[in-house]
Amino acid sequence: MQQILKISIADFWLIFRDASLKTFLFLPLLIFFVILWALPALIKAFPIVADYKKYILIVSTIQLTQMFGFIYGMMLVDEKETGVAKVYGILPVNKIGFIIGRFFMPIIITILLTFLLLLVQPFYNLASFPCLIFSILSGLLVPVYAIGVSLLSKNRIEGLVWVKVMNLIIVLPIVAFFVPKNISYFFSVFPTYWLYLGLDQMIFNQYFMINWAAGFLYLLILLTLFSLQFTKKHYE
Amino acid sequence: MIEVNNIGFSYLISSQKILNGISFKIHQGEIFGFLGPSGAGKSTTQKILYKILHGYTGEIKIAKKPLHDWDKSYLEKIGVGFEFPNHYLKLTGRENLQLFGSFYNANKLKPIPELFELVGIQDAIDKKVATYSKGMKMRLNFIRAIMHEPDILFFDEPTAGLDPGNAHKIKMYIKQLKEQGKTIFITTHNMNTADELCDRVSFINEGTLQITDTPQALKSRHGKHTVSVLLKNKMQQEFPLKNLGTNPEFLSFINSQEVEKIQTMEATLEEVFLKVTGKTLN
Ligand SMILES: Nc1ncnc2c1ncn2[C@@H]1O[C@H](COP(=O)(O)OP(=O)(O)OP(=O)(O)O)[C@@H](O)[C@H]1O
Ligand SMILES: [Mg+2]
Predict the structure, then answer these.
(1) How confident is the model at residue B130 (pLDDT cuts 50, 70, 90)?
(2) Which residues 48-87 of B have a C-beta within 8 angstroms of A?
(3) Is B160 exposed, middle or buried (0-12, 13-18, 19+ CB in 10 A)?
(4) Do A65 and A141 meet the contact criterion of CB atoms below 8 Å apart?
């Protein structure tokens, strides 16, 4: 625990020293603003928008993972590019423990923000326990996202490209709601497909646990594979 | 302190053997060097020793204990001076050391200002590393490697890319570390660095060690056992080292004129390397 705290403090310090990373800390404010004020105002002005509020809510919620996904993805890429990753490789910390340590705080914060957003959004009356489970799934997306970006990119430029691709992959399954059922299954290759499906069912009080269990399993497998590859390659 | 027995290694992507049955020992308090051309496998060997690369064959023991039986306390014990400067450029020098230092046992950490003074960059301690010159960054590398008082030190090309003045300073610090009883393993393709610094040196070429000995022994074994005398009038002659003091020709030669220079005709390490491996160092 002490180690985790140490790593988190060091990381937050790094984030605050970097203007482009620091800016992303304001992303949640923007998202909360959209859901609490902008979207309700929009619906009032153009009632037709109400038909889409569910999708906007789902996408906005999942966008909360962008903050730390981007920040940590770029941080890891930057460390690889500057060779700082090599220094971490010889520090007296356990390699897997280090991944857990680094992502502990960002995961927790993402979970809390997601949970809060689902509770305070003005459109649906959602039970808090399912909201918490969804938030945990959302939190798990952060390390998958960040480690994925760092595995795919050699430098910051490539990192910025892969961040965009990653965000697209995360948002894309929303399309599944707008296409015929048989085509929508195609989107099941994206982990967030399962999250969206479950959230949709939860909003309408249907049974959602199966989809979330699938999503959870999917994310866990990805996270394990990515972490193993990361510990092998990142410090070289 | 370090025993390496017949290790082999290849990177996953290329099945080609990068290291091919390498064996050597480094004693406590010794400076041991790998001298070899680019791509010989010097860095690879060090990376295996500081546990970044796994999946080698053969046996490595550190202080009599197999390397893979060591837990992270091994990493408290070692310091690594990387081949290229690698720091957080947006942080100051002090902040860089604070950050990485926080992962080590706090009782053993040396005071940061003292470290900066040691290598003469105390004026830059609170400047961002992005503003440092290459030589300053390498000195920061150096003090980061020693800040936690490690017993074993790895320096990968410690003088590469430094001007002679800075290179000399780094060599001095490494010698001081040896005097404190540290075990030191350096790699270099610079014969002067190997010659001045190392107690013993191994020639490495294409993943194999060709020969291991003291620089002095290597040079004299492969050089001519003669001394060359140059007089003020530019007359020059060579005499065998054997019975030099009683050699009448030598004595009359050095008495015939004022002597400008006398030198033994031992080989340079570079020449020995070429002779042993058939390759140049660069
Ligand atoms: N990550 C890697 N993946 C695949 N091959 C590698 C990798 N790193 C090094 N090699 C190869 O291994 C060989 C030995 O490399 P190594 O870095 O150990 O050489 P070196 O003696 O340190 O050279 P230099 O003097 O240039 O630093 C080279 O042929 C190199 O191309
Ligand atoms: Mg090298």
Answers:
(1) very high
(2) 50-53, 72-73, 75-76, 78, 80, 82, 84-87
(3) middle
(4) yes
